[in-house]
Design goal:
The complex is a heterodimer of chains A (107) and B (990). With 107 residues, chain A is an alpha+beta fold. Chain A has helices at residues 35-42, 90-99; strands at residues 3-5, 12-14, 19-23, 51-57, 65-71, 77-82. Classes of the chains: A alpha+beta (107), B alpha+beta (990).
Amino acid sequence: MLILECPYCGVKAEETELSPGYEAHLKRFGPGSSDDEFNDYMFARKNPKGVHFERWRHAYGCGKWFLAARCTATLEVFGTYPAQSSEPPADLVAKIKAKRPDWSGYK
Amino acid sequence: MSTRLAKGGRLIDRTKTQGFSFNGKRMTGFAGDTLAAALLANDQMLVGRSFKYHRPRGIVASGAEEPNALVNLGSGSRLEPNQRTTTTELFAGLEAASQNHWPSLEFDVGVANNYVARFLPAGFYYKTFIHPRAAWKHVFEPIIRQSAGLGKAPKDRDADRYEQAYAFCDLLVVGGGIAGLQAALVAGRSGARVILLEQTAHWGGRAPVDGDVIDGKPAEAWVKDALQALGEMQNVTIRNRCKAAGVYDHGYVLADEKVADHTPGDGRPKHRLWRIRTGRIIAATGALERPLSFAGNDLPGVMLAGAVRDYTVNFAVSPGDRTVVVTNNDDAYRTAIALKEAGLEVPAIIDARASVTGALPAKARAMGIRVEAGRAVVKVKGGKRVTGVAIGLQAGEGAVLDEIGCDAVAMSGGWSPVVHLWSHCGGKLIWDEAQAHFRPDPKRPPTNHDGSAMVTVVGAANGALTAAAALADVAAQMGGEAKAEAVEEAAMEPVWIMPQGAGPALKMKMWLDYQNDVKVSDVQLAAREGYTSVEHTKRYTTLGMATDQGKLSNINGLAVLAQSLNEGIPQVGTTTFRPPYTPVTLGALAGEARDEIFQPLRRSPIHAWHEAQGAYMEPVGLWRRPYCYPKAGESHEQAVHREILNTRKAVGMLDASTLGKIIVKGPDAGRFLDMLYTNVMSTLPVGKCRYGLMCNEQGFLSDDGVVVRLTEDSWLCHTTSGGADRIHGWMEDWLQCEWWDWQVYTANVTEQYAQIAVAGPNARKVLEKLGGMDVSKEALPFMAFVEGHLGGLPARVHRISFSGELSYEIAVPASHGLALWQALIAAGAEFGVQPYGTEAMHVMRAEKGFIMIGDETDGTVIPQDLNLGWAISKKKADYLGKRGQERVYLARADRWKLAGFETLDGSVIPDGAYIPAAGHNPNGQRNTQGRVTSTYHSPTLGKGIAMGLIRGGLDRIGEVVEFTKMGGGTVQARVCDPVFYDKEGEKGNG
């Protein structure tokens, strides 16, 4: 049972009060996009063994969506930040790079 | 004979005798006994039969690793199958019955399997029952199922209660042996919040049995002092009879406390399941002894050396008068010495090692015990009980040099650390060559949220097997000063097969997994047949799949596999350790969540009225809704039909309070709803209602409902009863994560309002009788709403209809719901008002051809499939699902589309029926061209009506198709318009 800190209310929330929202930082492709673009957006989700960026909602708490960076293999959590972010905060990226030199970035 | 000794027994109280029964036979034991100890004291060595060959089996171990001595415990509402006698504390009146035999334990017909064992090797079932294919389902499986399973499943309701609790700490110490006690002392003195758990009733582990000396005191005295010191620390909680069952992510531990297993019926909960969140876990879980693989090592009377010592020292029970000890290490000499000190005979110690030195062997020799070095047990003699052993050279092939008469054999193949808690969350192991076991690799621990090690393993669980080594390990890893007197032990020598050159006849009698009857020969056969992975070998042979989950002999098994594959043991590796460590009863996992509080129940404000009227309730998500209101002597079907006809002819009332209600408000609310719904909501005039569809991004229909424009900047979105929370979450998802610059607020007000549908030709008269509001056709036309007071209650009245009748849906604050309902019932009496339930609602909407989310949709259906293209805006550049619906295959002409069906004979098409098509698919199944989605008897029309999806949809109107029936046969139906009733919509508009 993961513990993730909600960046809005500061609560260290247990998995039972969170609901998952899969991969973070997806770019939405709507009408006018090519089949490949739509396919990648809709179905080709990342499933790495290692550093992963995910969406979580503090569903049974403040109700806010936030983003989390964690390692899917060791369950180490590198950080959480508001969903209203177009990219991960620079300090978080630096922290992950320091801990995982082989990490190829979030994109 | 196993018997009770006249003296000794550190855990028993001889002043308190306790009567119990085994297979109906009355026996007595002492307070403090385990059931296994008490059975041995009554000379009940034979306690069960093995799973496959039904061989007679006795008690092997003294703890959680016991594979044989499992019983049905208790009876009636307190029957529990597969309870380990070795961990069951004796209490007065205990009833136990042995398992897996017929007709009796002593005479078991299934033992015939034993005599054909050579024809029942590993993978026997897979190889034998594969042809003919059909026979598996109809012949083989039913017969095999009859003979499978150990204990009896209880039939009665569990008389006991269980509870769950939460606990939080900095450090959780698991294991109340000397390493765990010392770890808790060190941590407690540092001021940390500590919880210490011990799975048994007793503290100190093996040290008091082994006679260790700690800090100059006998272990027993040291343990007592340690407990007292821990008890005085406010920051330390200690809990015995509490087993840490599993370690999960980020320091989450599940622990099962056996509160009242030993005092049944005393009013306390039977178990308490602890959900513990800890900063770090100290696993001081000890080690388990391994058997040796020699022929006949499964006969009753062959036991682990450590277990023999436990029974002798703890319970003053001797497994036999003459016990031969067979070993590959020095530790087993402690058993020989303990037996000798108890006045029993040890005819010989058979040591596989060529050279035997060391302090313990010297002591044994000094006591006059014959020590045979470089020797092996070739074979154990006896049937239902050991009568002797045949001795040969360990280096040889099994030629018998000598025979020794004995009635018990104490064996030790070395000790394996209990690494389960380390491994549950991914801690890795290394192979310790010197001690021939896997132990935790400190470089590869399971990790916590911050990447630090989540589990630290100390003591025997870390491979520090002696008391001195264990305390030194605690000191090295955690600090502290406690020291045990070192007893010098010579190196052990791995022995995986005894004797090493044994031939097939002997290897067929060397048991690895006792309960599942897996022998050395089975694992070697699996290796020859190409099973090189330990995980595959496990499943093929069932090694380690019994209730002990390989605790006893997994290491022996994988060593044999490694030898057969000519590989190293670390290369072959272990199977995966998964929680729980030992089984947790389902009652504890369920806790208080049973009966009324199994799950939260949602009640509408009118719920009590429905119940008082004798409504038959059905679950709708967590809601309970009236399905129908049967009158005296009426069946549910009759009630539903009456409710429908009454609504169609007079007037009916439905409690629609469960309908989802979400307010969407803000400057960008209209723009947002245009993205959410397939049609345009921003243009809806204030005071009007509009039906809308919501799709997911793939384009599939997800929810529907009526949207109401409340004010210039606020809309009320009705969702399906089950969909309110999901749709509210869906809205928040898009607002927070995609369009976070849009100014929109949402509020789920589902439970803030009661909603009542009044439907039928007389509906208007009922509202007019209540008065206070103009509900005429002119003032309140179809698809409009007004706000005001109805019968004195603040209300919003919508002209919307799900039944097809003239219909008003009246929303009032939840606190007024019951008052409005009762007022409507009273006002409607003269107009023939009757309440109707969800089933009447379903039938009436089907008569009108209205779709139902979850009936006509299943996550693969787009609105266009349901002929709902009219509710999809062609003008909007974008909405959720628009791009998904543009995918080529969703535009194919041969998609299954909605149509109506009427049977030629007026019968009702069965639920879920398919329309077969010509030919077969590649799996040999009949092709299909459609299926029914809603099917009812329509009392209005007096015949069966249905909606369904069929290839070509409405293009096939007039065609007659066949639906399959359960159990064979077909029913013919004509494809028709799905609107069966009031096609022009005059009634709803009226």
